Write the structure tokens for this entry.
Amino acid sequence: MEASDERIGEVIEASTGGFSAQCYQLYKLPALGELVKCRYQDVDILAVTCNGSTSSLEPGRRPIARGYEEASEEDLYNNNPQLNQLLRSEFSTIVVGFKRGESFYHYLPPQPVRLHSFVYRCSPDEVISFGESMEFLMLLSGVQCEVPIEELIAACLRVMGAFHSPESDFNMRAGRKLAEIYSGDYQRLRAILARLK
Amino acid sequence: MALDLHKVANSLSAMAGELAYSRTEQAEKLGNALKLFNSPADICALKGKIASSKTSWLVAEINQGLNGKYLPLDTPEQFSVLATDGSQIDVDRHHGVRCCLINIGTVMLRYGRNPEAMLQNHPLLLSREEDLVLRPDEYAPGREMMVEGSILGMMRTVEEFNHLAELCAALPNGANALALVDGSLIMWSLLSKEYPDYIIDTILDQGVLKHMERIGQLNPERRVALASYISFTRSTDVVNALRVLTCPYEKADCDRYCAGAEAEARPCAMLDGIHDRDVFWQWLKCSERSEVFASRSKINCTRYGKQRVYFYYLKTSDEVARIEIPEWVAQDEELLKLSHSLVVRQCKKGQGYPVALSEAHEQAVVTGADRENFYSLMEEYLTGSKLLVSVSAKSLSKKTRWV
């Protein structure tokens, strides 16, 4: 973990295949498909953000509409400063690999992350290095999550693709891997490719 | 066996019928009250009559007028609202270990350029001998009192004021703030029993009043208005002033003139059953406050000194609330207006109830599940330390129900 890494949240639920985390700041969620990481022993566990949500901190207290007399949403939050303490933003992730030393592995790590592990954004270099292999797409394609899988895969490729130069073969390699995975499911392949624009 | 609602349904139906019948009668009495309230004639004479009255009920002391009403001023650009509330786990005599817990919720809400919120709770376990028994000394004789029940409740109130004073002390110089507590500033619980003087001294002089004074002393470097908010108040102080007004005798004296009279035959019976909130709900418009009155309760007049409690009524969107303030707020026009405008603003933000108080309650509340968890954790620690946990047979029988 580098000192410059941006810490965005903390794990509140964990399993081998994924984890959920609470953001330290309300609404400071990683983007859908963004690569995040957690340290466990000597391993950085890498995961793709597959859903984000904001809700009441206490399940029994439902948020109510408060802004009828407010000029803007910003005013609403400024005039109700307690909201930042009573609401929480959470995101869930799918583990797609890990990093040990300088090497990246595109399969599940031996252990899940610990509860209360800190969650960081991955640096551009880590995203580029992890994207050198497309094996993680195989993991992503097989999971069940809150958003449609074609949305998640396309979002992940868009976010990772943004870190690559236009001359890079990232998109071509991704396309080939998708064609391999969805060789028998043309409709889904088309849906993903249509969302890469 | 759960409550058999079929058996109680008939009684509930009869109760509803009686209430409906008495509503017409109440409307007539409220009309009487409003007529008197609207034109009280000579206020100076009424003040004199109240001062000399000997009544069996509490009568408001009138300061300036009876029926004035005031709109709130605009709130300052920058201000804070501080609030505390508390709850407790009382001593459970069915548990072998004597202990209890006070949980204080504290809230600081800062509005304006740099809005911020701080919501916290502060649990305090009372388990040592000196925590659980209040003892007299040679200067304050009396019998020992166990800290439980109503005494624990009063100690909780003292802690609420203590935390509120600490929150206020952390305000920067020049700050405008409202310090809010729930319920009355008058420690009515002290009147519920014959408490020895040292208990009154501990709870009142060394407790609530000391902390109220700490808050007052922060002025004028900071502008801190202390107030308490009483929702759905059942007070009748102002209606009782109208009773004195209607009393045909020169000097109202209930024991002397009406002691043996039938309730309905008393001259002031025309105002029976009317609360101050009924009058002010009709009289005030939303956000308006009434005149400021003083409570003439004995404890307030004899023990509160500079913290003597005054009050006004405030109409919110949903109810008439009684706002109690100490003398130093009542007599400082700026603080009085600050308390009014900030309470109104808090009620608007909190759907009719001050948002800071509602969050302080949420921080403080101890649910039934919390209580169970507290005892489980305690038992875990005790057995971990190889201490025998004894529980009464009655408590066990409630936990393990059988047929």
